[in-house]
Amino acid sequence: MPEMPEVQGLVDFLDGRLAGLTITRVTVANIAALKTYDPPVDSLKGAEITGASRHGKFIDLSTRAPDASPHLIFHLAKAGWLRWYDQLTATVIRPGKTPIALRVALSDGSGFDLTEAGTKKSLAVYVAREPDDVPGIARLGPDPLDPGFTRDTLAGLLAGRRTQIKGVLRDQMVIAGVGNAYSDEILHAAKTSPYALAASLTDDEIDTLFAAMTSTLTEAVAEASGKPPAELKDAKRRGMRVHGRRGEVCPVCGDTVRSVFFADNSLEYCPTCQTGGKILADRRLSRLLK
């Protein structure tokens, strides 16, 4: 799943190429991906793109048109991606026969497709008058790389939450932009168990968590910066220390990276670094034993 660093990388890439170009055509190949009807998607035709920005994991293309200035906003969800063309392909899109959900053609001949792999379709596209018209954006918590997000901001968000810190970091209504992969990386850097209760963290542990979150995300955004979309996924994988590395050696202590599996995802952690050597129970086995 693309998270804040990859989404920011896509935004930087698009902002440098789209500003000033006009949308000549928008083709919806998967109608289920389009979550809005007013303004209509046709209102984007002839609109000039004025820039690209990010809200959590949402990408926002702002436009300027004579009658309106709609925003084309999309969330890539778990298996979505953006495929860029310097010269847009002339291949005909066959709905139901392609991973393409949306195609955007631009005035200089370039363009992009929004694609989604797998059978579970979650990619979401919105045409909105304002970003906050999108419910997911309106509900977002603060961005952890915003200059106003301080150690005390984090402490305030954690106070009183009797829920596991892993879940808190992933909750977009609490902190925007962090998902499954980077929450694993942040907690590993902070030497914190994913099962630790948010409200139970001491002042020193909150200091460490804030520093780990800031450094992990800042370094990942810097790594993604300047890369074309085709290279961002591999760059993300290369940067992971524990996420997606079950059975490999922890680069900090040499212990074996372990996983806990859930219904539709998993978390990775290092027992020595994060849980005092304790192996966390595999939830799949726990279900079988009930």
From TrEMBL:
Assigned keywords, A-Z: DNA damage, DNA repair, DNA-binding, Glycosidase, Hydrolase, Lyase, Metal-binding, Multifunctional enzyme, Zinc, Zinc-finger
Matches recorded under SMART domains: Fapy_DNA_glyco, H2TH
PROSITE patterns: FPG_CAT, ZF_FPG_2
FPG-type domain sequence ranges: 241-275
Domain Formamidopyrimidine-DNA glycosylase catalytic intervals: 2-123
Cofactor: Zn(2+)
Catalyses which reaction(s): Hydrolysis of DNA containing ring-opened 7-methylguanine residues, releasing 2,6-diamino-4-hydroxy-5-(N-methyl)formamidopyrimidine
Xref: InterPro entries: FPG_cat (IPR012319), FPG_N (IPR035937), H2TH_FPG (IPR015886), Ribosomal_uS13-like_H2TH (IPR010979), Znf_DNA_glyclase/AP_lyase (IPR000214), Znf_FPG/IleRS (IPR010663)
Pfam entry (one): H2TH
Protein family per UniProt: Belongs to the FPG family.
PANTHER family registered for this protein in UniProt: FORMAMIDOPYRIMIDINE-DNA GLYCOSYLASE (PTHR22993)
Identification of the protein by name: Fpg/Nei family DNA glycosylase
Originating species: Microbacterium pumilum
Lineage, opening ranks: Bacteria, Bacillati, Actinomycetota, Actinomycetes, Micrococcales
